[in-house]
Amino acid sequence: MDEGLSATGRRMVGYALRWGHPAQVTVGGQRVTETFRRGAFLTSIAEGRVLMCLDHMWDAVVARQADGTLTLVEDAVGLRVDAVANHSPAGDDALEAVRCRACAGLSVSFDRPAAEWRDVDGESVREIVSCELLEVSVCRNPAYRSSEIVAGRMRIDAFLTAAAALDDPHGARLARLEAAEAALRR
Fold first, then answer.
1. What does the alpha-carbon distance between residue 133 and residue 135 come to, in Å, rounded to a whole number?
2. For residues 56 and 51, what is the distance between their CA atoms, to the nearest angstrom?
3. Residue 25: C-alpha distances to residues 28, 102, 116, 151, 163 (Å)
4. What are phi and psi of 97, to 5 degrees?
5. How far is Cα 160 from Cα 148, in angstroms, rounded to an integer?
6. 123 — alpha (psi -120 to 50), left (phi > 0) or beta?
7. Number of structural domains, the chain?
8. What is the mean pLDDT of residues 122-128?
9. 68-109 pLDDT tens trace
């Protein structure tokens, strides 16, 4: 059943991660708890070179900041992602995986982390305070379980309504993505 799609039917929205929701990762062979501090991605977002890929495969690009099909925003909740999937096998596969919920999460790939380490009850905790964000990926098994991505008009509307209740400055970014969708229709 078609739940009503965005203008091009290729839009996906979600959170790559949420502030304060940790993940268990391996760093230098050691299992640690990792979190990100709000502001960690601001430089990368401003540079405008981040990609959206499928399963961290650099040859499977789904959307790009550089062409306006990927918007990333640090809001009060986390790293928000708003993308229009390109017309390619990777874009088609990612969109279908999100629509059918085979992939309902996002993952981040980053380099050069600046981190603060602390010990909490004998457990190492790494908080990333800044890093070079390389890409966000649509994936089945994200490290950050609080991540999410949705497609389809009803799911997108529900997501945006919930996100707006938590953080409201979305109007300008929404206008840019709607313009990107319009350009894809041409």
1. 6
2. 10
3. 10, 23, 15, 28, 27
4. -65, -40
5. 12
6. beta
7. 1
8. 92
9. 999 999 999 999 999 999 999 999 999 999 999 988 899 999
Q: How far is the C-alpha of 39 from the C-alpha of 131, rounded, in Å?
A: 10
Per-residue tokens: 117: 């380490």
CA distances from 179 to 36, 97, 109, 115, 173 (A): 31, 24, 27, 37, 10
CA distance 8 to 181: 6
For residue 179, give its domain range: 11-185
CATH code at position 152: 3.20.16
61: in domain: yes
Q: What is the CA radius of gyration of the chain?
A: 16
54 lies in a domain?
Answer: yes
Q: Examine residue 6 and state whether it is found in any structural domain, yes or no.
A: no
Task: Pick the closest to residue 12 from 79, 66, 69, 90 (CA basis).
Answer: 69
SS3 46: helix
Give domain status of residue 46, yes or no.
Answer: yes
